[in-house]
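Regression test case RT-17, inverse folding.

Input:
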């Protein structure tokens, strides 16, 4: 029912002179095309007429009629299961048994004979308002269904742009890598990425956009594209983030920002050069169970401040050491008592998993988070990536 369409009202009554009376009493509404009347003499005619005019909104029906009475008609109308079709029953004053039966069978309202047309007009307006509320609710439901459909597609697109085939380089034995992302909503703002710059160097990225939901997902896709495009040119980490920050600042219309850690691992020597743009410092895990965090480079998030220099630090991985990169959804995961999972619990989980493969490390940390947050709703995206250095 469009907002400006006339409301179609069907009058079902075997008193034929009612048509003249209705058209006279409501001539203003008919002239201005607010309402439109159809008339039937009994329930059978009403059902036939309803097939011709399925967009009828209100049926005003007498109870006592030949061939098919109002109560039987009401039962047949209920079979249509159309909540936007409202029936108002008309009965003699004092006929409360039939009125109660009609109301129990789903009549929206009732009026008594002789008809008070002022009261009837109020009843019709009230019924129309209820119908409009139902139509509005249905429109909102359809919008929500469409939005959920769009969100599902967005989630599929987002996951499709993240590397998800593991092992990603099955012919390489000098390193092993695994990653995981679990968005708090249908789509999220975290992302990870890795790519071969050349045969001896692999780029590693993990990032966290400041917002959540669809805006964060869009900004995430833009950020990933910009950073990857700069990184695969072979730019050092500091130059890559400087260049990416410049572009993100120019295109940032929603005052969003992204924390980014980007590093380049030399798979021949174990040398690792990195820049940390306001992100959680990753952990280095030794085979012996020692866990240490990488030193920060003191740099700011990307997309917030234009023309700022970034800095670079270096470390060297020993054979068998692993790098654990993560977003703050890991350490800030909360349990039902609003306690954080924390760096201490993360470090404990990493020590316990130090001998495991990258995929197993992620599974063990995920299990520790799930056990800790059992019963609590996930409040932030959780993303992890592990790289183990395995030189020949």
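Golden output:
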């Amino acid at each position: 029912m469009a907002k400006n369409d006339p409301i179609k009202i069907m009058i079902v009554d075997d008193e034929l002179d009612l048509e003249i009376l209705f058209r006279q009493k409501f001539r203003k509404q008919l002239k201005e095309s607010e309402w439109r009347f159809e008339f039937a003499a009994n329930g059978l005619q009403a059902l036939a007429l309803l097939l011709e005019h399925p967009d009828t909104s209100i049926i005003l029906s007498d109870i006592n009629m030949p061939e098919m009475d109002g109560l039987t008609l009401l039962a047949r109308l209920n079979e249509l299961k159309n909540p936007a079709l409202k029936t108002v029953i008309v009965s003699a004053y004092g006929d409360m048994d039939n009125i109660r039966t009609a109301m129990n069978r789903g009549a929206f309202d009732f009026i008594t004979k002789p008809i008070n047309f002022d009261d009837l007009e109020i009843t019709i307006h009230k019924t129309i308002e209820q119908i409009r509320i139902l139509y509005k609710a249905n429109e909102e439901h359809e919008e929500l269904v469409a939005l959920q459909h769009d969100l599902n597609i967005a989630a599929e697109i987002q996951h499709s742009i993240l590397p998800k085939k593991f092992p990603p380089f099955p012919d390489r034995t000098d390193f092993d890598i695994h990653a995981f992302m679990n968005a708090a909503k249908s789509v999220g703002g975290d992302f990870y990425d890795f790519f071969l710059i050349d045969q001896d160097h692999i780029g590693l990225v993990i990032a966290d956009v400041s917002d959540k939901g669809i805006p964060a997902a869009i900004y995430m896709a833009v950020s990933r594209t910009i950073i990857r495009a700069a990184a695969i040119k072979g730019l050092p980490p500091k130059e890559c983030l400087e260049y990416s920050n410049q572009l993100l600042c120019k295109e940032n219309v929603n005052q969003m920002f992204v924390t980014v850690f980007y590093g380049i691992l030399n798979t021949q020597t174990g040398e690792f050069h990195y820049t940390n743009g306001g992100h959680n410092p990753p952990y280095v895990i030794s085979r012996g169970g020692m866990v240490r965090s990488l030193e920060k480079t003191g740099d700011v998030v990307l997309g917030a401040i234009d023309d700022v220099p970034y800095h670079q630090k270096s470390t060297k991985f020993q054979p068998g050491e692993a790098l654990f990169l993560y977003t703050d959804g890991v350490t800030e995961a909360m349990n039902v008592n609003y306690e954080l999972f924390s760096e201490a619990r993360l470090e404990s989980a990493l020590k316990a998993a130090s001998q495991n493969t990258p995929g197993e490390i992620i599974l063990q940390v995920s299990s520790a988070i799930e056990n800790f947050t059992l019963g609590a709703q996930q409040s932030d995206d959780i993303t992890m990536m592990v790289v183990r250095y395995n030189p020949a």
